[in-house]
Amino acid sequence: MLEFERNPHCPPPTVLLAEDDPGHARLIQSNLRESGIKNPIQHFEDGAALLDFLHAKSDAAPALDFTNAYVLLLDIRMPKVSGDEALAKIKEHSQLRLIPVVMLTTTDDPKEIRRCFELGCNQYVTKPVDYDQFVTVIQRLGAFLQITCVPVLGG
């Protein structure tokens, strides 16, 4: 595990994880922790729950804090509201569009990748099917998140 000294001007962002597969969600969270991520991680089981949180429409989860920085790991294939639909809604909002969005999905279709970038995603990571490769990809993503600066939503 690599340890990084965080830039004091870059507060550690809360990681928002929108992933409908509970097994993948657990693996992602545990391997982000294994990579050294100490940031809060908030999991959403579908795109509708994510959007409810972002737009403060749910009493089930704490409200979005505009004094915080956030990074969103977003699956594409989810029930209720798909990841690309959620991405489009997020990038239409004047403050929410500042949240960096990493598409984290098994979909490797070039048309889907292009569509996500056209909608405003910042990165696109394909989850490997092989367990060991999956673990490696998530741990590398965690190392990347440790050195990433993202803006606080409220300015």
Rounded Rg = 15 Å
Poorly predicted sequence stretches spanning 5 or more consecutive residues:
none
Remind me, CATH topology?
Answer: Rossmann fold
Q: Find the count of extended strands (DSSP E, 2+ residues).
A: 5
* CATH architecture classification name: 3-Layer(aba) Sandwich
Shape: globular
Q: Tell me the span between the first and last alpha carbons.
A: 32 Å
Average pLDDT, rounded to a whole number, is 89
Query: What is the makeup of the main sheet?
Result: 5 strands, parallel
Order of adjacent strands in the largest pleated sheet: 2-1-3-4-5
Q: Give the tally of structural domains.
A: 1
What order do the SSEs take from the amino end to the carboxyl end, as H and E? EHEHEHEHEH
Q: Strand percentage, roughly?
A: 5-15%
Estimate the helix proportion, in percent: 25-40%
CATH H-tier superfamily: Response regulator
The first-level CATH class name: Alpha Beta
What is the structural class? alpha/beta
In DSSP terms (H or I, runs of 4 or more residues), the helix count works out at 5
